[in-house]
Design a protein that fits this description.
Blueprint lengths: L2 H12 L7 E2 H7 L6 H10 L11 E2 L12 H12 L4 E2 L2 E2 L7 H4 L4
Parallel strand pairs: 1-2
Antiparallel strand pairs: 3-4
Helix pairs in contact: 2-3
The protein binds a DNA duplex (13 and 13 nucleotides) through helix 2 and helix 3.
Length: 108
DNA sequence: GTTGTGACATTAT
DNA sequence: CATAATGCCACAA
């Protein structure tokens, strides 16, 4: 197992502020694990509930929700994102054409 | 050991 | 828009 990496990922996700979001790739980079986006998905999957991670703020490339549409997880993530002021359309965060994705992403 | 799968990303068709 | 090819790697079988 790789406890250190998981810890780094969990710590990073925990630091994403309310109203901000980050991609799996970005979280991996910020955690010092460039190129290991898949590990982030795994880390979130196995994260202890007690950590209270804001997992809903982690999106796929293009600000897309990485759960199948109509899945309970997808619904839950959408709900939480909307609760933080975002507009979710067809599984993605709404962004006007002029607003680049970078503007929505968490930049520490 | 190998193989298939997956909360992924990027680039190229 | 959709696929495919790579790269990545933990895990289960």
């Amino acid at each position: 197992m790789n406890e250190a990496a998981l810890q780094a990922i969990w710590r990073t996700v925990k630091n994403i502020p309310r109203g901000e979001v980050a991609t799996y790739g970005a979280v991996a980079r910020l955690a010092g694990l460039p190129g290991r986006a898949r590990l982030v998905g795994y880390a979130l999957k196995v994260a202890p509930a007690g950590l209270r991670l804001p997992w809903h703020r982690v999106l796929g490339a293009g600000a897309r929700i990485s759960f199948p549409p109509n899945s309970p997880e997808h619904a839950e993530q959408s709900r939480r994102l909307r609760a933080e002021g975002h507009t979710v359309t067809r599984g993605r965060l709404a962004r006007s054409p002029r607003t680049r994705l970078d503007e929505l992403l968490w930049k520490p």
